[in-house]
Fold each of these.
Amino acid sequence: MARLECLRNAYGMALLEAAKKNPRIVALDADLSGSTMSRYIKNNLPDRFFEMGIAEQNMVSVAAGLSLTGKIPFAHSFSVFIVGRAYDQIRQSIAVPKLNVKLVGSSYGFSDSADGATHQAIEDVAIMRAVPNMTVIVPVDAVEVRQAVKAIIEYEGPVYLRISRSEMPVLTNEEDEFVIGKPRLISEGKDIAVYANGLMVSMALKAKEMLEKKNVSIRVINVSSLKPLDAEAVRQLARGVKGIVTAEEHSLIGGLGCAISDIIGDSIPIRKVGIADRFGQSAPSHEDLLEHYGLTPEAIVEKVQELLS
Amino acid sequence: MGNRDIVYLQEKAKIIRLGILEALGVNNKGHLGGSMSVADVVAALYFYKMNHSPDRMHDSDRDRFVLSKGHSALAQYAALAECGYFSKSELAKTKTLGAMLQGHPERDYTPGIECNTGSLGQGLSIGLGMALGGKLDGRDYKVYVILGDGELGEGQVWEAVTAANFYKTDNLVAIIDHNKLQATGPIKECIDIGNIGAKFSAFGWKTFEIDGHDMEAIVDALDEVDKVKGVPCAIIAHTVKGKGVSFAENVPGFHNGALNAEQFKQAKLDISNM
């Protein structure tokens, strides 16, 4: 069993570390710094932290203004608010002029389980993918969070970074290179390729164990970089398989499944695991919701078997 | 900063108004009304108050001009062309395919444009970000943001007004082009915004009320703003929509209207006689 590490905490520490070295980095939050973990900047580099209060639209446009003075602003809120509440500001103030603003959406999917549908972003990736000039990244673990923070600082342009609030298994190594746009092979296999991101990558690894008992071998690929997405690399990683399964903690509309099927087309049969065009609800735990909405290793196994039958 | 020569500045405002007509052309819909109402303020900023030059467009110490009411871009384009940011021949090509001058300000297209605006309500926040960046870097430039009065209906404006007071950005100046009309008619008949100055004051801003077509009053207010420390300033400039074009003044239809050949000729004559 892989070691668990909290992604949002890893994120906050990674941003602080980067900010200590790079004076251009500033952070903004909309009264959620204790949850998004921008509080590491707030507590350690207070001059470079801007509390914008419960006013996400202003926060996002202020970040645009700060970027126009040469800063690298990281604007934080829950995924559901930064994308939803400030959509027009993201589009008009940041994406159209390709400004160097990093939008950090925390507590995505069902990870804020108790708070219910209003707090559970299930369509944020679809929205951000549709915006021209936007880069969309969903790190799979704490290691990739640290790598992604470095990578998006080096990349000049708007980025949406989707961070889970949960502890997740560490699946990647610091030594392995993270490149924006490149899908990463996590585990080799020959029958079916499973393209997953976020928590669904570890679900796919569990599905792999379950399928091995039935002599089925699946290849697990982590697609943390949803946009841009290297189409040739996606095709290469599908070589020789009889089918593809995608798995994401997001609506089936507009997310990873769509990104992969846009690339693969009709050449290989595809099945998708995701949220079936409906909102979430409250539950005692993240796991309760994942199970209720069919985001499980069993669901991946079922799709794999469908493709092989 | 330019020369405090009122006649010279009035002449620049006239050139801006003629430039607006040039950019609008004949039989093309365009935002005539709001461009004409703001022309005097724009002239005072570009030709008197602001530290800027096309020769040092990326100078970190330059003053910033943010046209939050981005639909009045024609006034800014005319001013930028007169300053030499680009050739005046661009004005006639405004809004044509591939043109340098887009329907709303876009920094990637047009030299001298600081940020993209057009979706109302965002410019003051962007300006606040620029002001905070300036404070962080210890620079003493100012950020001038021009808002429409109808635009004050956007809730985001008041988020920015609140935050600017909290952060004491005395390097941020909001200028309200208070022409009392919005796209569909008088503000009072749409959603009455009420007493704009009282609202800004209540939010902690230092406010000034002026006749936005009185050049002397405009430059006085811009100079007064420099003396204010510790709070942001708002200048409420009372203006006339369509100012200078006899048949368009206070006519809502010219918010985004077209001039036929005869009207165009008359408009040019009216402005030349201002």
Note: Chain A is about 40% helix and 20% strand.
Amino acid sequence: MTLQTDTLVRPTVTLQSKADLLKLYSDMLLIRRFEEKSGQLYGMGLIAGFCHLYIGQEAVVVGIQSRQNPQDTVITSYRDHGHMLACGMDAGGIMAELTGRIGGFSKGKGGSMHMFSREKNFFGGHGIVGAQVSLGTGMAFAHKYKKDGGVCITYMGDGAANQGQVAESYNMASLWKLPALYVIENNRYSMGTAVARHTSNGDFYRRGEPYNIPGEKVNGMDVFEVQAAADRAFAHIHGGHGPYILQMETYRYRGHSMSDPAKYRTKEEVDTFRNTNDPILLLTDFLVKNKTATEAELEQIQDQVKEIVKVAADFSQTSPEPDPSELYTDVLIEA
Amino acid sequence: MPIMTVREALRSAMAEEMRQDPKVFVMGEEVAEYQGAYKVTQDLLQEFGPERVVDTPITEHGFAGLGVGAAFLGLKPIVEFMTFNFSMQAIDQIINSAAKTLYMSGGQLGCPIVFRGPNGAASRVGAQHSQCFASWYAHCPGLKVVSPYSAEDAKGLLKSAIRDPNPVVFLENELMYGQSFEVPEGDYVTPLGKGKIVREGTDVTITAFSIMVGKALKAAEQLADQGISAEVIDLRTLRPLDIELIVESVKKTNRLVCTEEGWATCGIGAEIASQIMDHAFDYLDAPIARVSAKDVPLPYAANLERLALPTVDDIITAVKNVTYK
């Protein structure tokens, strides 16, 4: 039932076109630069409240997103900026939501943790740890009910994996053979508590075993391994066999949120990941060594990404705050 | 008009809406094969099949969230709680996910879902199975909260709730399921947000919802024998509350008794009293009185249970207090 990563053959990435490979690079770099800019704006007081950065985990969402179908839906927790960018949501709209402006995806009413785009099939952005898992299971239920061929991809962290409703969701998803992909982003810390201190068994991918859900542990720092695992998961789900669990071994470089100095781990630990296992460096290395792209081509992408983030940051500061009349709108839909 | 029990009225509301909208489905514990723990979903499985009448595991938090997620993608779930006591397990999904997402998404993502089931005390089932959740849910913006009394309203309000694009908490009462009322024939709906004067009077206004409407009507009958004319308002919807109807009545009667089966503290009666102070303070000839459950967990012993729940006599006493008789 379970697959071990060490038994897997490294996927044949040459099957992807140069454009596809450069898009992986561009998407991951956009998340990295966007989040760095978010951190800066937070430091300047332009972003407030809770703000959870995705830096270090980029390969996970970009790898999965590159293998899913247009009708698939995505839902995640509050560490959601990367997922929104990967879904194709406009960087300016996301950044303007972070600054609480009318141009934000939720008109400034949701903030960092609560953003949605029906158009891009992104359903949040949820602030309650684990809540997105039963919501995503319901979205999978709807895909099956409507027979639209869609899969719901539900992301959660290692901390959320211990919530009771995750087990409840696994049970129902397997019982009803729902088209659900559960992606556990194990960034090794549930806020400040290391996995070994919050979880009796860190093999989150095996949590589906009692419910007959197959799972895999994947090197989530390598976008190609993420893609290959996603392909196996989607093949299983599209075959009508029900849900699948992917445990992505990843790492977040920044604190849990902007207010977390991350004193529960050493600088050496963070540096080790940054220097030897960084998802963007790994991909860059591959692209250069295989002569997929020249330094100049990569620099061109870097410039494009820089420009997108600059435009987004400008928009997030020039878009006005919501009109006071917005206070009372969107509470209920007119029946 | 034909006679129908509240149970049959609720069932026919669901069946009619399921016939005309394939997006409507029912889920909950024992709703399908068992035909409903209280038989409210009787025969729905036979007519609509297991894809639309879904037995769930005992997993309230999970299936409430599942229902909300399905509603995000445009389905119209009717989630049955075997009793609302178990909705406390699921309240995070009802409030944080169902009620707040429209606002948090800037109006993009509505949640057309109905959470329904029996609420409040049944008979001799003890503290954990007897709580009234009216004030809990009525507290929260983004929800509509409905609690019908008669079979006619149970059907009309449930049909409105299912058609409503917002999350609706629909509080039934187990002891009412078997009670019979006249029900109009055909496809009718009762608007949400509107109360109803179920007995006209001139001396005092009594507000009630769900099973307390019956007790208020009985009290009004006995008060009439004693020369006191009581007007009884069936609130029907608790959020949004039809405060205009109560204000107009109080302007006429100048006295108000608010009844509910739940606890008084931060309750529906407290809310009505506050709003009447805002809108009709100068019309009041007596302080507003509240009739509610005693401030204790509901006891099991028959005599203690009787003492804990609000009675017809409690309402009569309160009315006499505010009318100084």
Note: Chain B is about 35% helix and 20% strand.
Amino acid sequence: MELVKDVTEMRARVLATFAEAFPGQDFETREIPTDDVVITLPAGNVVAAVGALSEKLGMTHLTTITGDDMGDEIRLLYHMWHGCGLTLEVKLPLTDPRIATLTEQIPGATMYEREISDMFGVVFDGHPDLSRLLLPDSWDGPPPMLKSSDGAKEDQV
Amino acid sequence: MVPFRLLVYPGFLFLFFCAMLFSWLDRRIIARVQGRVGPPWYQPLADFIKLLTKEDVLTTGAHALASSVLPMVSLVSVLTAALYVPVAGVSADSFDGDLIVVLFLLSMPALTYFLAGWVSVGVYSIIGGHRSLLQYFSYEVPFLIALAGPAVLSGSWRIADIIAYQGHTIWGALTQPLGFLLAVVGLIGKLKRDPLDIPKAKSEVVGGPLTEFSGRKLALWHLALDMQTVVGIFLLVNLFLGGSRFLTGLPAFPVFALKALGVLLMLSLASALYARLRIDQLATLGSRWLAPLALLQVAVVLWMRG
Amino acid sequence: MTKTTVPIGPQHPLLKEPMSFQLGLEGERVAESAMRIGYVHRGIERLCQERSYVQNIYLLERVCGICSHVHATTYSRAVEALMGVEVPPRGVYLRALMCEFERIHSHLLWLGVIARNIGFDTIFNYAWRDREIVLDIMEDLSGGRVSHAANTLGGSRFDLTDEHRDKILEQLQIMDAQIQLLLGAVEHERTLRERTRGIGKLTLEQIHRYCVVGPVARASGLDIDLRRDRHEAPYDRLEFAVPVHTDGDVWARTLVRVQEAVESVSLCRQILNSLPEGPVTTRVPRRVPAGEAISRSEAPRGEVIYYVRSDGSDKPARVKVRTPTLTALVTLSEQLADVQMADVSVVLSGVDLCIACADR
């Protein structure tokens, strides 16, 4: 397994791969500590991007998916690692957030997607089983990690 | 004399005392091997009394009559077997062929144990019950064949005769070392002790057939098992270690006690030093190694008798 | 054949973790399994958004009851990266020291659990007795046996005197001998091998597919260890081997973990012997500037990742934790397929689950 040396190399190689996979598109990138490149993608491109990364660069390790309620949109961050970190950033609308599932490319994403569906109400189209992961089956409030949720009530704790 | 022999020595009271003592020694030895201190001497007795005072819970759907009768049957068959097993040469009764009766009676607890799982209606109980039957077939055959060795060699199925025969020749364990080892392994299986505690393995089937038992019934089960340990050890001492005989002139009882403790030590060390086998591993071991080896031992014995 | 459904957990002697399994058994064989977690979900990620950066260190220690220090360290590193603060070398070394002690602690605890589950109480007692040595050292260092509160933003909260260091080195001497004894027992004991070999097998391909990390991945031949692969201080200046086995079964995982514990003892020695002089903490700014940071470390069970986003206020806007157990959970249904009921406990304990970590 050949690991990428540093962030600069990671950015260059990933952008080259993407230029091939999505011709004509520009991607916004930024570096964040401690050693991660964040690349922003349109929501529809994640599955293809992960496919290209695993095919061209042998990157199959999805560390996790972070959901983040920014107030006006939901951000999903797909954290990968291959010598140094690579994060794919996707922005989803607050109302009816949907995105295609990654479970076909990376079965290991199952739990991460279920968790985000629990906590942010994001629907992953094509996911085999989006049942509750962390929340109790009886939970009927809004997804608790959304800023608009005021958390659990007394009798739900 | 007979009531005394039935109730006090070598009958119920003595066996009860031995059961408590052996259970404590066993726990103590294992604890020592494992770098622990172990319980105080009165712990088994305290456990027993405490269980007697506990509430007796019956699961819904369990057969009330059967679940009270089974532990008693188990205990009674062990006690009856004990009548014919001499302690330091003294037994409550003896007749020609008593070894066969003892072996039969000692198999009864295994049956009641299986039924206990069956009548108490719980997944763990039923799985444990199945396992105990499977285990029964794995250890019982080699165990019986191994115990037949001394009987065949001495030409009698009376325990007293077998002891006497060893008295004027040598210990059965010396003429049939393999048979002795197989008998010990069989006894471990019979008593469902580590490493053959498959039917009641806590991390697999909780408490096995006894999962749903509590209070007095559980106390009786434990007592029956502890007494079975004692009777089993005494039986092996009689059949393989020459009973109470060791160099003429030495008092019978201490010699017998020492030998019994020696066998107990073997059982305890086996508990401490091995991991539990899986039921299929035991079945393979039983049919591939234990039973053929036991047959081999009997063949050697037949050859020795000429 | 009729199917029996056996419930395992959330309270069960097999599994000391609050998770639940419904096993469909055909005879003794597991035909199907369904898993449910979430019994100890405490909403830690949400709580983090309502507490200050410093309070969060001690909150995040509560994510896990075994590898508490590595969580606090990883989080602190992320926040320090946001602030642009460099921890003095002595602080870095002391943090790593605690992490290594924790690794020994975690692996020995695990060895005890698996030994207990296969009915090998002697190894269980030995492993847990020896674990006490490490717990004692950690208590000496930080005042806590499990939750150490040994971190602060900008460095470590404890320091070592020379006498203290010599005492720990002495204790490590005993520890070393004991671990070698355990390693010998694990390598040579036949019944233990019989019970664990071929159980819960995961191929390298499955490891890649499910993104499994830590000792489970290393037991299947994936040579990955963030301590080495990220070249981070102080591990870039220390010598250690990363044990990798290729069998992929519980037996290989046992070897990997015990050998790792041996390596960790050596790492602790090296750290103590090459401890740099100087302060253990540095001053940190009052405010955390807006921005985001990701920090990763190798916890006893594998890669831990923290994502921290700051909006410039005194509380983080988002803290995300991913614990290694979550990756192993996905593989369980495959590992459990077709095993014997007796091996369920071996499979479940073989991956070293920490449900409190997974639930957060």
Note: Helices of chain A lie at 7-21, 46-57, 110-120.
